[in-house]
Amino acid sequence: MNQNNEKTFxxxxxxxxxxxxxxxxxxxxxxxKEVLLRENYxxxxxxRYPFLKSKDDKFYIKGTNFEELYSLFxxxxxxxxxxxxxxxxxxxxxxxxxxxxxxxxxxxxxKDYLNPKNxxxxxxxxxxxxxxxxxxxxxxxxxxxxxxxxxxxVNNYGxxxxxxxxxxxxxxxxxxxFSILKKEDQYDIVDIYGLDIDVFSNYLSILSNYRNLCAHExxxxxxxxNKEIEDTRFxxxxxxxxxxxxxxxxxxxxxAILIIFKSLLKQEELKNLVLEIKHILDNLDYNLKTxxxxxxxxxxxxxxxxxxxxxxxxSDLFNYQ
Length: 321
Description:
With 321 residues, the chain is mainly alpha-helical. 58% of the residues lie in helices and 1% in strands.
């Protein structure tokens, strides 16, 4: 290892010096030190990119001040909380729908609803089915002595119904559960949302990834996912520009998440979510001096008319007629 490239510990004074050497204005050193101590220089530094002169230039745009950088950091924290809150709403809805549909068809005792015969019986799915059911059983046993509802059902009834088990399953496990269901059971679930199976499965995978990002306080506002969502009529109705035969927004960015929310949340929930995002964007816009809010929107993958997503009917999203 080249020791010259090692990242060594830096005191708060040294961190301030590095920021100033790169062209950042720091008017209140004590305030900046307090923020750096509480928030971590490395995490705060991750928000520098919109303020740099170029991709290859590590120096800040002339006039960039510490408060602007911190404002973007705080904006992302608020945005992350909004996204996380709404993913939890969707997660709860999906768990409720899964448990209702499967319990109605296969029974409410674990020996019934966790029977491998209830799931996709294709040879290539056999190992995945057995592995996932084993995970679910382990999760159930793990929570018998720690999760009050699980404990209550075991002690009083001798079994754990699926509507209780789903509460302790991760979103990742629930997403995978959908992939091993029989086709007719998948159709029963996706029909509730008016989506097709592949679209719904992709949405679950992407939301599971964002849930983890939010839970671990990673940068969310300009995150790009490995998976893309399909084109919707919505992209066309908002006149999202196309480059190289691909929409430039709403494919693997935060706006794609908003499209997913459009499909899975109730109308009033989506309206409140967009209002909350608008509020924190307006606040950030007020605090930015050296860059425009449009630069942040672009990194988010948000078109300027993003609010119009609220007024588009859900039935229009996948209808190209």
